[in-house]
Amino acid sequence: MGGSILLSRFMGLIRDKIISYLFGATQESDLYFAAFVIPDFINYLLAGAYFAITLIPLLSSYFEQDEEEGWRFFSAVFCWITLFIAVFTGVAMGTAPWLARLAAPGLSEEALARLAFFLRIILPAQVCFLLGSCITALLYLRKEFLVPALVPLVYNGMIILGGIVLQRRGMEGFCWGVLAGAFLGNFLLPCLAAASGKGLKLRWNLSHPGLKRFFLLALPLMLGQSVVVLDEQLVRVFGSMAGTGAISWLNYARRIMLVPVGVVAQAAGVAAYPFLAELVAKRDFTTFHQILNRALRGTLTLLIPLTLWMMAVSEPTIRLIFQQGHFGPPDTLHTSQLLLIMLLTVSCWGFQQIMGRGFYAQQDTLTPAILGTTATLLSLPIYYFLTLRWEALGVALASSLSLGLYTALISLWWWHRFGRAAFLGLAGDALKVTGISLIAVLPAILIVQIPVVDPKLFPYWEAIYVIAFSGLCFAAVFVMLARYVIPGLIRPVLQKAGPVGRRLLR
């Protein structure tokens, strides 16, 4: 899963590189990114982002009791979800001009008309996302991770293909790529995998006793709009109030920031979740807290050093990936400043990814929904006033503050409810990792500040040199110090790093 997410993030960067090259940070690119606000909100409103999380514990219970009963329950859920998303999508497509005003209140009438056109192309993709999530939950239950790992690669690949083939039609080509990628990657591929594996026995069924339990679990996720899932939409909505190009700058910075989150924390959470749910079913809470603690420690061990190094090379990173074509040096400067602010809470992103799955494994969807909604409501005035005060920088700062607030709330509530078993040793480990990382980042900063190649004459070669050399220096110093200061934390990483890692262990 980690390898898949890494490749997916890389393809996402290629996609954004093509967008920045062809359209830079302009109104056309702003419209494309803003076009996802309403479709994503519908997805979150129907708990699409959490379908696998909601379904897995229930499917596990029914399939363990009786396979036929499991298929009846799964079919009932699938049929109801099909009806819900079809109705929502149809209504949204009919009211697209009005929804465009909600998604980007700062745009002109002409821009809103084009945004509504983009909306009508992208909205049907939500049908594929939601139904594909049901099938993916079935694959996770079977502990089959390969096809779910391929889904984002197909999705991003189709977006890139659509944008290149139809580039003369502006960002419209990327919108058609979203629709094609959602159908082929998110829906068709999981269906084929499930059918060719242990089978896919769907039937028309709208009644099952387990539906009530499923909707009770999903309802908090539908009604409670967590700052975690709404962060990207809030960034786009308030970004539309920060001037032309702000949505694009914020989007590019956020893409880079989420790379370590996805590769480390998201992969750890996805892989650990079926096992956490299984331990809860067995009532083995001692092992449950041990695995949760191990996941948190491992996530922070990787995210803290990655964050500090990425902050040191933020400007060369943006320059190398995006600065070309219509994306010029001023855009690089704006985006790298926003990236610095967003990187401050990467560890918070990772922490809440793990903690949230701890609640979901116990079939508690209400607590994260209440805490997430509370953080969202508290964050809205922060977004508004910081946007008015500092425009795009204010939006980035509000995003970081809101994630920090939610992480604090969910962690404090877990401590209050379940005790400190999941947090044993975390504070001390985090301080040690931070101390080592601060020492290791010093030579990286020196390399950035004293370039060997003239960045004005050779901007891309200089960026490659700075990123590569500073990264090697940082990794070498960090690993050597970690071997002596935090051997228990670094050992699992080095064991998976191949011959070089095993040599360092010896």
What order do the helices and strands come in, and which of them pair?
Elements lengths: L1 H22 L3 H8 L2 H9 L5 H15 L1 H28 L1 H8 L5 H14 L2 H17 L4 H20 L6 H25 L13 H14 L3 H13 L6 H36 L3 H28 L1 H9 L6 H15 L2 H16 L4 H53 L7 H24 L9 H27 L1 H9 L2 H8 L1
Which characteristics define this entry?
mainly alpha; 0% strand
The separation of the N and C termini measures 28 Å
Shape: globular
User: What's the overall average pLDDT, rounded?
Assistant: 84
Topology as a string of helices (H) and strands (E): HHHHHHHHHHHHHHHHHHHHHH
Q: What about the largest sheet?
A: none
Alpha plus pi helix count? 22
Low-confidence stretches: none
Strand content: under 5%
Structural notes for this entry:
With 506 residues, the protein is an all-alpha fold. 83% of the residues lie in helices and 0% in strands. The protein is globular. The model has no long low-confidence stretch (mean pLDDT 84).
Task: Give a quick rundown of the structure.
The chain has 506 residues and is mostly helical.
